[in-house]
Amino acid sequence: NEAQHWLIQFKRTLCTADLHQAWEIYQQLFKKIKVQITNLKWLELHHVSPALTNAADLSLAVPGTYKPHTADIGIKSFAHYIGVIASKQRPRRMSMLGADGKRYEFLLKGHEDLRQ
After folding, report:
1. Which sign, positive or negative, has the C-alpha torsion 22, 28, 33, 38?
2. How far apart are CA 16 and CA 13, in angstroms?
3. Which of 6, 9, 36, 103 is most buried by its number of CB atoms within 10 A?
4. Which of 8, 50, 54, 3 is nearest to 26 (CA)?
5. Is residue 44 within 8 Å of 84, Cβ to Cβ?
6. pTM for this model (two decimals)
7. Residue 99, C-beta contacts closer than 8 angstroms, at least 6 positions apart
8. Which of 92, 89, 88, 114 is CA-nearest to residue 105?
């Protein structure tokens, strides 16, 4: 790897120009990755959360479905893909299948203060 070469060179010479060469390579790589991530529309659940991919027939109720004096609607499974909404904060749209056979969708937002 070229960046690694420049870092090794910097360790030997302590010449900041070598460090700048490595940094330039990493910066270009970051820009390419950022463009790809920005264009991402879907995430595969097994890459994001292997535990949720394998979770099935949970005794945990589907959020928002609890009603007193009635049987809970458990989570049967999670969808294999999570949608990424094209907006500034890029929230995720996730769905799960309830034990009642209905699909329930949820909006997942990261880095939010939910105490408000």
Report:
1. positive
2. 9
3. 6
4. 3
5. no
6. 0.69
7. 57, 73, 74, 75, 76
8. 92
